[in-house]
Design goal:
10 helices, 287 residues, Rossmann fold, 7-stranded mixed β-sheet, 2 domains, alpha/beta
Protein backbone atom coordinates (compact mmCIF):
# COMPACT_ATOMS: atom_id res chain seq x y z
CA UNK A 1 0.00 0.00 0.00
CA UNK A 2 1.57 3.32 -1.07
CA UNK A 3 2.44 5.78 1.68
CA UNK A 4 0.78 9.18 1.82
CA UNK A 5 3.10 12.12 1.39
CA UNK A 6 3.36 13.75 4.87
CA UNK A 7 3.14 17.17 3.27
CA UNK A 8 -0.34 16.32 1.95
CA UNK A 9 -1.82 15.32 5.33
CA UNK A 10 -2.71 18.87 6.49
CA UNK A 11 -4.38 19.55 3.14
CA UNK A 12 -6.34 16.28 3.26
CA UNK A 13 -7.46 17.02 6.82
CA UNK A 14 -8.71 20.46 5.77
CA UNK A 15 -10.63 18.96 2.85
CA UNK A 16 -12.20 16.32 5.11
CA UNK A 17 -13.22 18.96 7.67
CA UNK A 18 -14.71 21.16 4.93
CA UNK A 19 -16.76 18.25 3.57
CA UNK A 20 -18.09 17.48 7.07
CA UNK A 21 -19.21 21.11 7.47
CA UNK A 22 -20.97 21.03 4.10
CA UNK A 23 -22.82 17.80 4.84
CA UNK A 24 -26.23 18.42 6.44
CA UNK A 25 -26.45 17.44 10.09
CA UNK A 26 -28.47 14.36 10.81
CA UNK A 27 -31.93 15.16 12.14
CA UNK A 28 -32.73 13.96 15.65
CA UNK A 29 -35.26 11.12 15.88
CA UNK A 30 -38.90 12.16 15.67
CA UNK A 31 -40.65 11.88 19.04
CA UNK A 32 -44.31 12.92 18.98
CA UNK A 33 -44.46 12.63 22.76
CA UNK A 34 -41.76 15.25 23.25
CA UNK A 35 -44.16 18.21 23.11
CA UNK A 36 -47.70 19.27 22.23
CA UNK A 37 -46.58 21.28 19.18
CA UNK A 38 -44.13 20.73 16.32
CA UNK A 39 -42.83 22.37 13.15
CA UNK A 40 -42.16 20.16 10.12
CA UNK A 41 -38.70 20.62 8.57
CA UNK A 42 -39.12 19.01 5.16
CA UNK A 43 -35.43 19.16 4.21
CA UNK A 44 -34.48 17.00 7.19
CA UNK A 45 -37.68 15.01 7.61
CA UNK A 46 -37.80 16.26 11.19
CA UNK A 47 -40.60 17.35 13.50
CA UNK A 48 -39.01 20.02 15.70
CA UNK A 49 -40.69 20.22 19.13
CA UNK A 50 -42.05 23.66 20.08
CA UNK A 51 -42.29 24.07 23.84
CA UNK A 52 -43.71 27.59 23.92
CA UNK A 53 -46.42 28.28 21.31
CA UNK A 54 -47.14 31.88 20.32
CA UNK A 55 -50.86 31.93 21.05
CA UNK A 56 -53.74 33.98 22.43
CA UNK A 57 -56.11 32.61 25.06
CA UNK A 58 -59.42 31.59 23.51
CA UNK A 59 -61.33 33.81 25.95
CA UNK A 60 -59.65 36.90 24.46
CA UNK A 61 -60.84 36.21 20.92
CA UNK A 62 -63.90 38.40 20.32
CA UNK A 63 -66.35 38.84 17.46
CA UNK A 64 -65.89 35.29 16.16
CA UNK A 65 -68.15 33.45 18.60
CA UNK A 66 -69.97 31.32 16.02
CA UNK A 67 -66.89 30.07 14.15
CA UNK A 68 -65.07 29.63 17.47
CA UNK A 69 -67.78 27.28 18.75
CA UNK A 70 -67.87 25.30 15.49
CA UNK A 71 -64.09 24.83 15.39
CA UNK A 72 -63.89 23.99 19.08
CA UNK A 73 -66.63 21.37 18.74
CA UNK A 74 -64.90 19.77 15.74
CA UNK A 75 -61.58 19.73 17.61
CA UNK A 76 -63.07 18.24 20.78
CA UNK A 77 -64.73 15.44 18.79
CA UNK A 78 -61.46 14.68 17.05
CA UNK A 79 -59.59 14.58 20.38
CA UNK A 80 -62.20 12.16 21.71
CA UNK A 81 -61.50 9.74 18.85
CA UNK A 82 -64.69 10.60 16.95
CA UNK A 83 -64.99 11.55 13.25
CA UNK A 84 -64.06 15.16 12.47
CA UNK A 85 -63.66 17.32 9.37
CA UNK A 86 -60.77 19.11 7.75
CA UNK A 87 -61.34 22.84 8.20
CA UNK A 88 -60.62 25.83 5.95
CA UNK A 89 -60.64 29.16 7.77
CA UNK A 90 -60.82 31.89 5.15
CA UNK A 91 -61.30 35.64 5.14
CA UNK A 92 -59.74 39.02 5.82
CA UNK A 93 -56.20 39.34 7.15
CA UNK A 94 -55.69 39.74 10.87
CA UNK A 95 -59.16 38.54 11.86
CA UNK A 96 -57.99 35.68 14.09
CA UNK A 97 -57.89 32.63 11.82
CA UNK A 98 -54.54 31.20 12.89
CA UNK A 99 -54.99 32.51 16.45
CA UNK A 100 -58.23 30.54 16.75
CA UNK A 101 -56.58 27.29 15.61
CA UNK A 102 -53.80 27.61 18.18
CA UNK A 103 -56.24 28.69 20.89
CA UNK A 104 -58.60 25.76 20.18
CA UNK A 105 -55.67 23.34 20.36
CA UNK A 106 -54.65 24.75 23.74
CA UNK A 107 -58.23 24.72 25.06
CA UNK A 108 -58.75 21.06 24.16
CA UNK A 109 -55.41 20.01 25.63
CA UNK A 110 -56.30 21.87 28.83
CA UNK A 111 -59.33 19.56 29.19
CA UNK A 112 -57.53 16.48 27.85
CA UNK A 113 -53.82 16.87 28.66
CA UNK A 114 -51.52 15.77 25.84
CA UNK A 115 -54.50 14.65 23.73
CA UNK A 116 -53.57 16.53 20.56
CA UNK A 117 -50.35 17.34 18.82
CA UNK A 118 -50.25 20.53 16.70
CA UNK A 119 -48.02 20.09 13.63
CA UNK A 120 -47.29 23.13 11.48
CA UNK A 121 -46.35 22.63 7.83
CA UNK A 122 -45.25 25.64 5.79
CA UNK A 123 -46.98 26.44 2.53
CA UNK A 124 -43.84 25.80 0.46
CA UNK A 125 -43.52 22.30 1.96
CA UNK A 126 -46.94 21.07 0.79
CA UNK A 127 -45.31 18.76 -1.82
CA UNK A 128 -43.73 16.83 1.08
CA UNK A 129 -47.10 16.29 2.76
CA UNK A 130 -47.24 12.58 1.81
CA UNK A 131 -43.94 12.00 3.63
CA UNK A 132 -45.18 13.83 6.71
CA UNK A 133 -48.44 11.91 6.79
CA UNK A 134 -46.58 8.61 6.42
CA UNK A 135 -44.66 9.54 9.54
CA UNK A 136 -47.79 10.61 11.47
CA UNK A 137 -49.64 7.48 10.37
CA UNK A 138 -47.20 5.39 12.41
CA UNK A 139 -48.16 7.01 15.71
CA UNK A 140 -51.30 6.56 17.78
CA UNK A 141 -51.31 10.23 18.78
CA UNK A 142 -53.99 12.39 17.22
CA UNK A 143 -52.57 15.41 15.36
CA UNK A 144 -53.90 18.69 14.06
CA UNK A 145 -51.99 19.51 10.89
CA UNK A 146 -51.83 23.30 10.59
CA UNK A 147 -50.98 25.22 7.39
CA UNK A 148 -51.13 29.01 7.58
CA UNK A 149 -51.86 31.22 4.55
CA UNK A 150 -52.56 28.37 2.14
CA UNK A 151 -53.13 29.43 -1.47
CA UNK A 152 -52.10 28.45 -4.99
CA UNK A 153 -51.02 30.54 -7.97
CA UNK A 154 -51.58 29.99 -11.67
CA UNK A 155 -48.69 27.65 -12.43
CA UNK A 156 -48.60 25.95 -9.03
CA UNK A 157 -49.43 22.25 -9.22
CA UNK A 158 -48.68 21.34 -5.59
CA UNK A 159 -52.41 21.54 -4.86
CA UNK A 160 -52.72 18.14 -6.58
CA UNK A 161 -50.60 16.54 -3.85
CA UNK A 162 -52.83 18.07 -1.21
CA UNK A 163 -56.03 16.92 -2.93
CA UNK A 164 -54.85 13.34 -3.23
CA UNK A 165 -53.71 13.18 0.38
CA UNK A 166 -56.88 14.70 1.82
CA UNK A 167 -59.40 12.44 0.13
CA UNK A 168 -58.53 11.04 -3.27
CA UNK A 169 -55.41 8.93 -2.79
CA UNK A 170 -55.23 5.19 -2.17
CA UNK A 171 -54.29 5.65 1.48
CA UNK A 172 -56.15 8.94 1.99
CA UNK A 173 -55.84 10.92 5.18
CA UNK A 174 -54.72 8.98 8.26
CA UNK A 175 -57.49 8.53 10.82
CA UNK A 176 -55.37 10.26 13.46
CA UNK A 177 -54.86 13.46 11.42
CA UNK A 178 -57.06 16.40 10.40
CA UNK A 179 -55.93 19.45 8.45
CA UNK A 180 -56.73 22.99 9.60
CA UNK A 181 -55.70 25.59 7.01
CA UNK A 182 -56.07 29.36 6.82
CA UNK A 183 -56.35 31.38 3.64
CA UNK A 184 -57.35 34.83 2.45
CA UNK A 185 -59.13 33.13 -0.48
CA UNK A 186 -62.23 31.00 -0.20
CA UNK A 187 -61.27 28.85 -3.19
CA UNK A 188 -57.49 28.98 -2.51
CA UNK A 189 -56.85 30.67 -5.86
CA UNK A 190 -57.13 34.32 -6.99
CA UNK A 191 -60.42 35.45 -8.53
CA UNK A 192 -58.76 36.82 -11.69
CA UNK A 193 -57.24 33.38 -12.28
CA UNK A 194 -60.68 31.76 -12.05
CA UNK A 195 -62.16 34.31 -14.47
CA UNK A 196 -59.28 33.88 -16.92
CA UNK A 197 -59.72 30.09 -16.91
CA UNK A 198 -63.43 30.51 -17.60
CA UNK A 199 -63.01 33.03 -20.41
CA UNK A 200 -60.49 30.94 -22.37
CA UNK A 201 -61.97 27.48 -21.88
CA UNK A 202 -64.20 25.51 -24.24
CA UNK A 203 -66.16 24.36 -21.20
CA UNK A 204 -65.74 27.10 -18.55
CA UNK A 205 -67.24 25.02 -15.74
CA UNK A 206 -64.83 22.13 -16.27
CA UNK A 207 -61.84 24.42 -16.72
CA UNK A 208 -61.79 25.54 -13.11
CA UNK A 209 -63.42 22.53 -11.48
CA UNK A 210 -60.13 20.80 -10.65
CA UNK A 211 -58.65 23.77 -8.81
CA UNK A 212 -61.86 25.03 -7.22
CA UNK A 213 -62.61 21.51 -5.96
CA UNK A 214 -59.52 21.82 -3.76
CA UNK A 215 -61.56 23.71 -1.16
CA UNK A 216 -64.25 21.01 -1.34
CA UNK A 217 -61.83 18.67 0.44
CA UNK A 218 -62.46 20.70 3.57
CA UNK A 219 -65.68 19.60 5.26
CA UNK A 220 -65.97 22.89 7.15
CA UNK A 221 -65.56 26.38 5.69
CA UNK A 222 -65.40 29.06 8.36
CA UNK A 223 -65.56 32.68 7.15
CA UNK A 224 -63.86 35.59 8.92
CA UNK A 225 -64.78 39.18 8.13
CA UNK A 226 -63.63 42.68 9.03
CA UNK A 227 -64.63 43.84 12.51
CA UNK A 228 -67.11 46.56 13.28
CA UNK A 229 -66.03 49.37 15.59
CA UNK A 230 -67.70 48.04 18.76
CA UNK A 231 -66.11 44.59 18.39
CA UNK A 232 -62.70 46.13 17.78
CA UNK A 233 -62.94 48.17 20.98
CA UNK A 234 -64.21 45.12 22.89
CA UNK A 235 -61.05 43.26 21.84
CA UNK A 236 -58.88 46.16 23.00
CA UNK A 237 -60.69 46.33 26.38
CA UNK A 238 -60.30 42.57 26.83
CA UNK A 239 -56.57 42.74 26.24
CA UNK A 240 -56.18 45.80 28.49
CA UNK A 241 -58.01 44.08 31.36
CA UNK A 242 -56.13 40.81 30.88
CA UNK A 243 -52.72 42.48 31.07
CA UNK A 244 -53.57 45.14 33.69
CA UNK A 245 -53.08 48.14 31.40
CA UNK A 246 -54.74 50.85 33.46
CA UNK A 247 -56.04 53.65 31.27
CA UNK A 248 -59.29 55.62 31.58
CA UNK A 249 -61.96 54.04 29.37
CA UNK A 250 -62.45 57.16 27.26
CA UNK A 251 -58.73 57.59 26.66
CA UNK A 252 -58.31 53.90 25.83
CA UNK A 253 -61.11 54.08 23.27
CA UNK A 254 -59.77 57.29 21.72
CA UNK A 255 -56.21 56.02 21.41
CA UNK A 256 -57.31 52.63 20.07
CA UNK A 257 -59.54 54.36 17.51
CA UNK A 258 -56.73 56.63 16.37
CA UNK A 259 -54.42 53.61 16.08
CA UNK A 260 -56.87 51.76 13.82
CA UNK A 261 -57.29 54.83 11.61
CA UNK A 262 -53.53 55.11 11.07
CA UNK A 263 -53.46 51.40 10.11
CA UNK A 264 -56.45 51.74 7.80
CA UNK A 265 -58.26 48.73 9.27
CA UNK A 266 -59.89 47.24 12.36
CA UNK A 267 -58.89 43.68 13.23
CA UNK A 268 -57.70 41.53 16.09
CA UNK A 269 -54.15 41.91 14.81
CA UNK A 270 -54.39 45.70 14.80
CA UNK A 271 -55.86 45.60 18.34
CA UNK A 272 -52.94 43.46 19.55
CA UNK A 273 -50.41 45.79 17.91
CA UNK A 274 -52.02 48.70 19.74
CA UNK A 275 -51.86 46.79 23.04
CA UNK A 276 -48.16 46.08 22.49
CA UNK A 277 -47.53 49.79 21.91
CA UNK A 278 -49.60 50.78 24.94
CA UNK A 279 -47.87 48.27 27.21
CA UNK A 280 -44.49 49.56 26.06
CA UNK A 281 -45.46 53.15 26.81
CA UNK A 282 -46.77 52.17 30.24
CA UNK A 283 -43.66 50.13 30.97
CA UNK A 284 -45.58 46.89 31.55
CA UNK A 285 -44.58 43.46 30.21
CA UNK A 286 -47.13 41.30 28.42
CA UNK A 287 -46.54 38.16 30.44
Amino acid sequence: MPKTDPDLLPLLNRIANALERLAPAMAPPNDLDASDAFVWHADRGWLEPVYQVNRVEIELLRGIDRVRDILLDNTERFAAGLPANNVLLWGARGTGKSSLIKAAHAAVNKKRPHALGLVEIHREDIPTLPSLLSLLRRTARRCLLFCDDLSFDQHDTSYKSLKAVLEGGIEGRPANVVLYATSNRRHLMPRDMIENERSTAINPAEAVEERVSMSDRFGLWLGFHSLDQDTYHAIVRGYAERYGLDLPAGQLRAEAGEWSITRGSRSGRVAWQFIQDLAGRLGKPLA
